[in-house]
Amino acid sequence: MGRQAYVNGRFVRHAEATVHIEDRGYQFADGVYEVVTLLAGSFVDEAGHLARLKHSLEELRIAMPVSDAVLKLLMAELIRRNNIRNGYLYLQITRGVAPRDFKFPKKTRSALVMTTRRQSFSPSLSDDAGIKVASVPDIRWARRDIKSIGLLAQVLAKQNATEAGAFEAWMVDSDGFVTEGASSNAWILTKNGVLVTRQADHSVLHGITGNSIEYLARELGVKVERRPFTLAEAFEAREAFITSATTFCLPVIEIDGRTVANGHPGELTCNLRQHYFDYGQKRQDRPFAWPK
């Protein structure tokens, strides 16, 4: 039957998947999403993704369209139908369909849409691997802990990065501190060997992959600090990398045209990437805890 998607109670051909023109996700970006990694046929940190999904929904006062158990079954069934072992699942929930009005509709049912995509992943990195990032002002709203589908600021950031010849944008707040990437969390390893990333508050989206990377770093005996860092500090870093569900742990070798360290993937970055693959494939029966 070919590639399938899930739309509001039905599995349908991906090419024919549609939502109503008055879905509030389309009208107001009134919804949330999650992206869940799939390695060797199993979801990675599924519990963490569902916990963050619930947080986002609760903060926006959107009802879960199905129970946790049913959602897990639907996710697994979509993966089975599409015969995917490595890739990811995209899940979106909106407040549903209602006549266009800013106020919450009195009677509507949350809408659930899911799609999948295959992607090849490699645990190892070549010596010439690594990405460039470009800094941009962070112009987003104040509740970045909610994984909202309102991503226009991130679209502009990504486009600016692309036009600058970079893979990712690092967003910088009004105080001069890096918040996060347009679709990732930002990390540096200081000259003193301390791994630094932004604190998990309303200023950033607390990353599921980043949460696991933090645990893995501590297992390796690396000191981790959750605090803001500036671009100036990043320029002087021993290593830098990004984390996300689709990039895992990816080295940054250039920031705003300035080479990071020797311009090659760092040893810790490569180790963390390998350890994350091992974790994703062999330890999902005992996943790392997701903070409440």
Structure description:
There is one protein chain. Strands 7, 8, 9, 10, 11, 12, 13, 14, 15 and 16 form a 10-stranded mixed β-sheet that branches. Strands 2-1-6-5-3-4 form a 6-stranded antiparallel β-sheet. By secondary structure, it is an alpha+beta fold. It has 7 helices and 16 strands. The model has no long low-confidence stretch (mean pLDDT 96). The protein has 2 domains: 4-118, 2-Layer Sandwich (D-amino Acid Aminotransferase, Chain A, domain 1), CATH 3.30.470; 131-282, D-amino Acid Aminotransferase, subunit A, domain 2 (D-amino Acid Aminotransferase, Chain A, domain 2, Alpha-Beta Barrel), CATH 3.20.10.10.
Strand content: 25-35%
How would you sum up the major sheet? 10 strands, mixed
CATH topology of the largest domain: D-amino Acid Aminotransferase, Chain A, domain 2
Q: What is the fourth-level CATH superfamily of the largest domain?
A: D-amino Acid Aminotransferase, subunit A, domain 2
Note the gap between the termini: 41 Å
Shape field = globular
The helix content, as a percent range, equals 25-40%
